[in-house]
């Protein structure tokens, strides 16, 4: 079975003066979250689309889903965790309780504030995760990457080997959970995303080609870009 896992558990502190998490901000009359969900709904491969929300916003999230998609049994809204990876583990535990996990159960995890993911990217994530166990969506780095210690350069890696990470990140769910549970507390503290869990365990994570427009809406300026991209989609 294959599940979409939409990560809407953040509070969006970098968006500035807003009284709600950024995934609930509206663009073109619809919350960003709903634009994102709509990219996954048409794909018949998904058993369920699981939306993970901050506890205080679960009721609001359910109402937005109902308002913009109607009564849709394909979507479940559940509580996220304190961190990104705990949120993903909540999704895996939900799948285990409701459906059971086997070695080929796949989760396609995606930022709720990346509403421009394409059907091609989603399909390639599913195919790669099924065949290889794990994959990460990336685009080649176009700028020189500089490593520093705060006030001085310590290294300049070869740009040809550098990529910018996006989402989806997709995994065989049991493999990811078992790998996460085998980490020490100190190792869990330094995690920045789910793919790093497997990298730390020496498990290969394949690359899937992303798109430059598959942006994450993080700052107020990103909202302007998103509105322009939505204008192009509707032309």
TrEMBL record:
Listed HAMAP family: TarI (MF_02068)
Site (Positions ribitol 5-phosphate for the nucleophilic attack): 159, 216
Transition state stabilizer, annotated site positions: 14, 22
Family of the protein in this entry: Belongs to the IspD/TarI cytidylyltransferase family. IspD subfamily.
Reaction equations catalysed: D-ribitol 5-phosphate + CTP + H(+) = CDP-L-ribitol + diphosphate; 2-C-methyl-D-erythritol 4-phosphate + CTP + H(+) = 4-CDP-2-C-methyl-D-erythritol + diphosphate
Pathway linked to the protein: Isoprenoid biosynthesis; isopentenyl diphosphate biosynthesis via DXP pathway; isopentenyl diphosphate from 1-deoxy-D-xylulose 5-phosphate: step 2/6
NCBIfam families: ispD, PRK00155.1-3
Top EC class, one word: transferase
GO MF annotations, alphabetized: 2-C-methyl-D-erythritol 4-phosphate cytidylyltransferase activity; D-ribitol-5-phosphate cytidylyltransferase activity
UniProt-recorded name of the protein: Ribitol-5-phosphate cytidylyltransferase
Enzyme Commission identifier(s): 2.7.7.40
Role according to the record: Catalyzes the transfer of the cytidylyl group of CTP to D-ribitol 5-phosphate.
């Amino acid at each position: 079975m294959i599940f979409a896992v939409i990560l809407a558990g953040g509070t969006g502190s970098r968006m500035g003066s807003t009284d709600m998490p950024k995934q609930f901000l509206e663009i073109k009359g619809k919350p960003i979250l709903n634009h994102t969900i709509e990219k996954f709904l048409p794909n018949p491969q998904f058993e369920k689309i699981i939306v993970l929300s901050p506890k205080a916003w679960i009721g609001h999230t359910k109402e937005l889903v109902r308002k913009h998609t109607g009564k849709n049994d394909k979507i479940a809204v559940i509580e996220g965790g304190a961190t990104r990876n705990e949120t993903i583990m909540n999704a895996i535990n939900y799948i285990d309780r409701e459906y059971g996990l086997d070695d080929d159960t796949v989760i396609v995890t995606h930022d709720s504030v990346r509403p421009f993911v394409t059907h091609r990217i989603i399909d390639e994530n599913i195919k790669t995760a099924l065949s290889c166990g794990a994959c990460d969506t990336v685009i080649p780095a176009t700028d020189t990457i500089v490593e520093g210690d705060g006030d001085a350069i310590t290294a300049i890696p070869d740009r040809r080997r550098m990529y910018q990470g996006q989402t989806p990140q997709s995994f065989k769910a049991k493999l990811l959970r078992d790998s996460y549970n085998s980490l020490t507390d100190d190792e869990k503290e330094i995690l920045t995303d789910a793919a790093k869990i497997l990298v730390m365990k020496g498990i290969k994570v394949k690359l899937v080609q992303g798109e430059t427009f598959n942006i994450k809406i993080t700052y107020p300026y990103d909202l302007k870009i998103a509105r322009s991209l939505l204008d192009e989609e509707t032309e």
